[in-house]
Structures are given as structure tokens and as C-alpha cells.
């Protein structure tokens, strides 16, 4: 076996470790233990609980990788963005391993990880336009190369995934909200409620989900005083909310693709567009963006469903690029909860 990178992900509520072969990019080992159940009773992630669970779960997973330690060439870990105290759990483990095994350390940006979930076990494609939708972020950016990411639009308040989590919480459906709301929506009438599409007439090139969330909240408050079929109501709310949230993303993506087609700096013009991040698993979003890309003759790239949400495999894939470039960090590597560079 060739040299391996051991990668660790603990930026939120998934404890995950992977081993990837550097030369072939092959995934040798991966385990992820999701903490969803433990957080669902609180309707969202409790950072202190997440941190304590990482401290318990990461060593359990690490133990299974011990027979590969002799083949390790580097230790990679997510350092930003994320929850400070959960990032620190992974970082402490990574530093201990790097120090005791005398291996280089590689700090990885989590969002770049989501981007590279497109390129697991294969080569990357640049330049490309990207829609990133996760629990913490919603943004459009141009990935021009491994080191050059140009953010063109972000959310001015909540993220796309977060708005699903909040709608689910308001309806008492559980956490994480994305898959739950999506499955309720399948049985609902998406025109039952005419929520306004955020920033529709505004020139501002950005995302916003808090107004939509409030519109949903007002409908839920109204219903408390009525007698009606609650299951039908929940399904209709989910379907109508999802339709509008996806429509909002699609409108901005349309503009992004249009601008790309008309651009003068042809060297940056992309022929591939990607959706990445945990919420890129959304079926309606995938379906609508597929159609938009077809209209523009752009190839759509999607991550495999099992690697859309947080995982250490995507972190290992980024680390291969850093390793090849000999870009290493020292033991002073810090956790950065709010992203600064990308
Ligand atoms: O990327 P991710 O695993 O974690 C962060 O980096 O934040 O994304 C998790 C987010 C959660 O907000 C979750 O509700 C959302 O992605 N999500 C979805 C779907 N699956 C997960 N949102 C909408 N539709 C889905 N099918
Ligand atoms: Zn993520």
C-alpha cells in the first residue's frame, strides 16, 4: 500500500475519520458517527454536548485505523469554519497524532472539503461555478483553482439548510430538518401557501431566508387557534416552504449562469457548475438546477449522496492537494470558527 493521509472532521455534529491513499486518491477507510439523535431532543446542535461526544467517539473510530499507522504520511484536520469547541476536539487529536508519529499536519477549510466531495477518488475540474448550501452557509462562488475561490454571493442572514432546520423545529418535526421537511413536502400541496420569494425584485446578489422563515412562523401561529387536519397542514407548509426556498436559490443561480455566459474575461468562464454541501442532497433542488444547467449547456456536477453531508473523506481529498504542494502546518495550527480565507 502507498502512503496514506489520516483525516479528521469534527466541525459540527459528525465525528468522522478517514484514510485516503495519496497517489491513487482511493478511500481506504471511513467511519462517521452522527450525533443527530442526541441533539434532536434539543431541536438543534448543542455545542457543549457535541464537543463531549466528539471526545468520546473520535478515539473509538481512531482505534480502528491503528493497523494503518505505519503507512501514514500526514494528518489532516478541519480547522475552519465551525463550532469552536468541536473543531478543537479534532484539532487536539490531529496535533497529538502528528507529534507522536512525527508526521506533517495539514489544516483544511471545511467548505473546500465540501467542494472536493465532488472529486473523491478522481481528479478535480477547474474552473467551475459552485452553489454551496449547508447548515452554516449558502453561497455562490467561482472555484478557479485549488487556491483561488471567488465568492460572488452569500446569505445576509440564515442559510438554506438552517431554514429547513428552523421550519422543522417550528413544526415540531425534529432535527436535522432538511431530510424531514423534504419528506413531508412529498405529500403536500406546494401551492397551499404563497410565501414571498426572498429578494425577488432586489438587485442585490445575495441570499436571504429569515423573511421566509418568519412567513412560515406566522402561518403556524395562525393555525394554533383553528381545528384542522394537522398532518395535511404540516405537509402543505413543508411543500410550500421548500418550493419557495428552492425557487430563491434557482433565481440567483440563473443570474450567475447568465453572467458567466456573457462574461468578457473568457479565461474564467466555466462549463461546469456544481452544488455541494449537506443541503445539496435536496431532490427538488437537484431537479431544478439540472434543468437550469441544461438550458445553458453547462455540465452539472453533484457529490455522491453519502458524501454531501459532513465527512472526513472530503477533508482527506483536500489534504492530498496540500500534500502534493508540500503545504504543511505546524503544531501552532489554530481553530478558526469564522472563516477568513477560502
Ligand atoms: O454540510 P452539512 O452536513 O453541515 C454543515 O456544514 O453545516 O449540512 C447540514 C445541513 C442541515 O441544515 C440539514 O438540515 C441540511 O444540510 N440538509 C438538507 C437536506 N439534507 C440535509 N436541507 C434540505 N434538504 C435536504 N434533503
Ligand atoms: Zn458541512
Tags for this entry?
five-stranded mixed sheet; Nucleotidyltransferase, domain 5; binds zinc ion; 342 residues; 2 domains; alpha/beta; 18% strand; binds 5'-O-[(R)-(carboxyoxy)(hydroxy)phosphoryl]adenosine
* Shape summary: globular
Helix proportion: 40-55%
Regions with little confidence, pLDDT below 50 for 5+ residues: none
Lateral strand order in the biggest sheet? 3-2-1-4-5
- CATH class annotation of the largest domain: Alpha Beta
Give a count of the beta strands, DSSP E runs of length 2 or more. 10
Second rung of CATH, namely the architecture of the largest domain: 2-Layer Sandwich
Number of separate structural domains: 2
- Rounded mean pLDDT is 96
Main sheet specs: 5 strands, mixed
Bound molecules: 5'-O-[(R)-(carboxyoxy)(hydroxy)phosphoryl]adenosine, zinc ion
Any idea of the CATH topology of the largest domain?
Answer: Nucleotidyltransferase, domain 5
Class by helix and strand content?
A: alpha/beta
Please report which band the strand proportion falls in: under 5%, 5-15%, 15-25%, 25-35%, 35-45% or over 45%: 15-25%
N-end to C-end Cα span: 32 Å
In sequence order, what are the helices and strands, one letter per element?
Answer: EEEHHEHEHEEEHHHHEHEH
Q: What is the fourth-level CATH superfamily of the largest domain?
A: ATPase, nucleotide binding domain
Amino acid at each position: 500500500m502507498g502512503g496514506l493521509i489520516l483525516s479528521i472532521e469534527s466541525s459540527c455534529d459528525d465525528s468522522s475519520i478517514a484514510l485516503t491513499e495519496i497517489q491513487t486518491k482511493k478511500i481506504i477507510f471511513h467511519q462517521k458517527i452522527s450525533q443527530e439523535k442526541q441533539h434532536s431532543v434539543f431541536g438543534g446542535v448543542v455545542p457543549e454536548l457535541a464537543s463531549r461526544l466528539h471526545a468520546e467517539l473520535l478515539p473509538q473510530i481512531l482505534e480502528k485505523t491503528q493497523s494503518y499507522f505505519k503507512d501514514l504520511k500526514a494528518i489532516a484536520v478541519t480547522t475552519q469554519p465551525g463550532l469552536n469547541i468541536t473543531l478543537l476536539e479534532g484539532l487536539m487529536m490531529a496535533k497529538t497524532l502528528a507529534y507522536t508519529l512525527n508526521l506533517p499536519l495539514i489544516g483544511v477549510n471545511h467548505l473546500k472539503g465540501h467542494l472536493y466531495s465532488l472529486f473523491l477518488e478522481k481528479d478535480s475540474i477547474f474552473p467551475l461555478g459552485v452553489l454551496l448550501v449547508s447548515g452554516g452557509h449558502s453561497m455562490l462562488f467561482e472555484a478557479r483553482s485549488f487556491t483561488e475561490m471567488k465568492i460572488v454571493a452569500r446569505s445576509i442572514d440564515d442559510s438554506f439548510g438552517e431554514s429547513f432546520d428552523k421550519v422543522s423545529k417550528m413544526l415540531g418535526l425534529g432535527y436535522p430538518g432538511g431530510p424531514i421537511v423534504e419528506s413531508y413536502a412529498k405529500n403536500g400541496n406546494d401551492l397551499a401557501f404563497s410565501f414571498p420569494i426572498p429578494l425577488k425584485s432586489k438587485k442585490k446578489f445575495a441570499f436571504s431566508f429569515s423573511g421566509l422563515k418568519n412567513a412560515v412562523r406566522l402561518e403556524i401561529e395562525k393555525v394554533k387557534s383553528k381545528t384542522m387536519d394537522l398532518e395535511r397542514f404540516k405537509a402543505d407548509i413543508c411543500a410550500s416552504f421548500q418550493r419557495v426556498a428552492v425557487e430563491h436559490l434557482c433565481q440567483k443561480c440563473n443570474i450567475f449562469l447568465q453572467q458567466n455566459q456573457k462574461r468578457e474575461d473568457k479565461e474564467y468562464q466555466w462549463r461546469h457548475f456544481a452544488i455541494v454541501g449537506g443541503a445539496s442532497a435536496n431532490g427538488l433542488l437537484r431537479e431544478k438546477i439540472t434543468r437550469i444547467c441544461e438550458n445553458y449547456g453547462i455540465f452539472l456536477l453533484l457529490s455522491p449522496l453519502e458524501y454531501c453531508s459532513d465527512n472526513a473523506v472530503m477533508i482527506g481529498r483536500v489534504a492530498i492537494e496540500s500534500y502534493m504542494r508540500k503545504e504543511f502546518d505546524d503544531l501552532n495550527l489554530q481553530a478558526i470558527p469564522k472563516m477568513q480565507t477560502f
